[in-house]
Amino acid sequence: MPRLSNKSLSTFVGIALSCAWALAPAAVHSQETVAQFYKGRNLNLVVGSAPGGGYDLYARLIARHMGKHIPGNPLLVVNNMPGAASNVASGYVYSAAPKDGSVMGAIFMGAVVDQLFSDSRATHDPTKFQYIGNANADVYVCLVREDANVKSFADLFTKELIVGGSAGGASTRDFPTVLNAVLGTKFKIVAGYPGTREISFAIDKNEVQGSCGNSWSSIASSQREWFSSGKVRVLAQEDSDGYPDLNTKKVPKTVDFAKTAEQKQVLDLYYSQTAFGRPYVVAPGVPKDRVDALRAAFMATM
């Protein structure tokens, strides 16, 4: 997987230590060992996105291998629970799911930081999740069809580009919204697509001319023919540092278009969430020995 590094994993483990271990569950559970609990059991992995997108693909790859590293070797079963930029899944894992370690969530990074940036009604308290790990740190990009009227990111200050997006809280909706608000770009966002797969279909059919807030690691793999054929190209990188290969190709970074130090600070803060691009969580109240076992298994899988 591109961009996977010990640095990104250690960053997220640090978050887990500060906001999860400090809230160690007090619930008393039986004296059975972790292996006894998981033996012959399914571990449900709830993915907060529609099938076929990047979050779903990462979760299914991890589910294929993680069980062999968990004592008792449970079978990981992936269930998709899309809606409200993974806040439906986050709320389910947080409040409704069993708090015994049999349910784990694969949620959007926005579900972790959304309360910092918006007034949306919370379905969960992200500081009380017990974080199992992070699948990757990623660079997000804006894409454009080659036949669109916009040829460069600079064109967006005078020309409109129609882009597809999901619900508020999803990167494909929020990233171009932030660029419009901070830099003054002219993205026209057609929101409401279930996920990145459906947005990709819309780009193929020319329903929309591009999209922003796309994970480069996902889109470069799932839509490789776009870039080899030249049908779609990367318009800009939505990241403070950029991806090495894209930097080599001189693909611009949106932060470089900031006109003031304050604008750059806003974008740098907003893009900092990509350090934990794909969080995996369990509910508060899951016994610590099972949380520790899941963390160790996640790290071994990665």
Structural account:
With 302 residues, the chain is of the alpha/beta class. It is 38% helix and 17% strand. The chain contains 12 helices and 10 strands. The strands form 2 sheets. Strands 2-1-3-10-4 form a 5-stranded mixed sheet, sandwiched between helices. The longest helix has 14 residues, at 6-19. It starts with 5 loop residues before the first helix and ends with a helix. The model is unreliable at 1-28 (pLDDT under 50).
Shape: elongated
Strands in their spatial order, largest beta sheet: 2-1-3-10-4
Report the sheet with the most strands, covering strand number, pairing sense and barrel closure.
5 strands, mixed
The oligomeric state of the chains shown is: single chain
End-to-end separation: 9 Å
Helix content: 25-40%
Stretches where pLDDT is under 50 for at least 5 consecutive residues are 1-28
Please indicate the percent range of residues in DSSP E strands (runs of 2 or more).
15-25%
Instruction: Calculate Rg over CA atoms.
Output: 20 Å
Write a brief structural summary.
The protein is α/β, with parallel strands linked by helices and about 300 residues long.
Task: Label this structure with key terms.
17% strand, 12 helices, elongated, 5-stranded mixed β-sheet, 10 strands, disordered N terminus, 302 residues, alpha/beta
